[in-house]
Amino acid sequence: MGCNLNVLLVTFSCYRVIGDELLTDEEMHNLFEAGKTHVHTGLISQQGTPYSARQVLDHDKQKVETEFVQEEVATQYQCPFCKSKIVQEGIVMKCSSCDFKFWTKTVRC
User: Fold this and answer.
1) Are the C-beta atoms of residues 39 and 52 closer than 8 Å to each other?
2) Which residue has the higher pLDDT, 14 or 25?
3) Taking CA 74 as the corner, what is the angle to CA 88 and CA 97, rounded to the nearest 5 degrees?
C-alpha cells in the first residue's frame, strides 16, 4: 500500500538586516518561530533621524516586512495643564494623561 502525501513547498527570501544592523541567528529563529524579531532602537534613517523597528513575518504575503515602532520615552518634563509626566513618541511629545501634545524637530548642522 502506498503513501499519499500532499506537500506544500513555500520558498521566499529575506534580508538579514534591519537598518544597518545584522540580525543574529537567535533573531532569525524568533522571526520564523514567533513571527517577529525584537524591536531595534536607535536606528538612523537616510535623512539622519532616529527610529525603532522590527522585522515581521507576513504569512499571507509570504514575505518579511519592516514594522516601524514608536516607543514612548519618559522625559523630565511636566504637563503645563495637569502636571502629569510628558513622554516622547518619535517627534511628538505628549502628556501621559490629557490631550496636550507638541511636535519637535531635530536640526542637523
Assistant:
1) yes
2) 25
3) 75
